[in-house]
Design goal:
heterodimer; A: 252 residues; alpha/beta; Rossmann fold; six-stranded mixed beta sheet; four-stranded antiparallel beta sheet; 10 helices; B: 282 residues; mainly alpha; MetI-like fold
Amino acid sequence: MVINDPILSIWNLNIRYGQTLAVKNNSFEIEKNKVTAIIGPSGCGKSTLLRTLNRMNDFIDSFNTDGTINFDGNDIYAADADPVEIRRRIGMVFQKPNPFPKSIYKNITWGPQINGYQGDMDTLVEESLKGAALWDEVKDRLNESALSLSGGQQQRLCIARCIAMRPEVILMDEPASALDPKSTARVEELIAKLRQDYTIVIVTHNMQQAARVSDNTLFLYEGELIEYGPTKALFTKPEKQQTEDYITGRFG
Amino acid sequence: MILALSAFISIFTTLAIIAVLGKESFGFFQQVSIWEFLFGTHWEPLLEPKSFGVLPLLAGTLLIVVGSGLIAIPTGLMTAVYLSEYASERTRSIIKPIMEVLAGVPTVVYGYFALTFITPMIRLILPDTQIFNALSASIVVGIMILPMVASLCDDAIRSVPVSLRQGGYALGATPFEVTKNVTVPAAFSGIIASFVLAVSRAFGETMAVTLAAGATPNLTLNPLESIQTMTAYIVQVSLGDTPAGGIEYQTIFAVGALLFVVTLGMNVAANWIMNRYREVYE
């Protein structure tokens, strides 16, 4: 698929854990200010691929990669690339909500604080929580522990914490899979809202969710990129037989 | 039934110890006022004129506790952070067993290690140091409790969920920032617990301090002088030919009771701190 305004360009990417090849020779681009969904059956490598985009896999000893991932003109796996800087600009929301065991307020301010944010913290907290559609629910208890929130609220807090850093890209690893249907709907609404300001890459095993929230969809199967295209086209007229089999529920 | 009985053994033992300590201390306090015992600055129960001020023994013990804590707590915590957050699996698999060996060395060995190795080293630098001195004992007790601090802190830090660390990294934090602001605070209660256990152990440590610190009840804060700890005093009297039933004999129960109360107080305080400042993460 040809992308006019790419923010991430991935060329010939292989990802290995030790000898096991988890992602095989993927090349694709992520469109700026759009939502890109990565779908595929469990174990197909989609989370691995996502975590490679902001170097979150660095902490796994056996992990290694070749190929290039260009972000803003630079290879993020180049020897002189700074993973901390990359993660500052490419944020991440995880499958299971993981707020810090600190107050709601501190959850938002921690990231900007350690990165030397100079502006007014109260304003930042309010803006971020509003951005994550959580402000009205928590504005009177900002100093309470983040763990007093429900699972869905915790996940929106994690999104708020992420956007407080003003990242250019937000990676979401099955952000609603641990939530109930109502919370899931709220997170999806939120993604629809965030797409105006951010580039979002979301991994999901829920095809309806991919169809609802994304502009482009990438189908990954056993580490191979099978098909990549505008979501609507991919779901209505898939080009590959495997894609059709998967989205019609014949496997996975 | 047998299971319940087994559980009952430890309860019974505790009660029996409290009863014995209480009974003998009670006899002691009928002859010596609690005030004189707790606040007297002179301890000379074996020779005339007798005096029963426990402060010199308490000061001696505190000197060892503080000294060894100053050595073991920072070093142990840093070791744990290094092992859990920075060291490779290989390094870890080398250091951990070595620490366990360190923890398994009999305390009497530590005692003469202090006397024959650490003390001469100190005297090389500070020639005025007495042969028996609190510094040498503090260092050796510090080394003794270090593996305990390191190992328990390591467990506490490693039990912090990986997802919390990842949350930190995903916000553009360096490994040091994640350790300092996320992992260590989340493991705080376990870390405090390890400090308290280690300090309690230093408090009750007997053999090494008896050998290295001397047997001179001495109300001082100078670690280069010879002192006597509460435990060392108990050893001295227990080994000697002090007749059972006399006041000299009863002093060890009074000192033992004090030791017990202080240790208990520390555990209570630690529990309070843990509940007060704990960051619950599940």
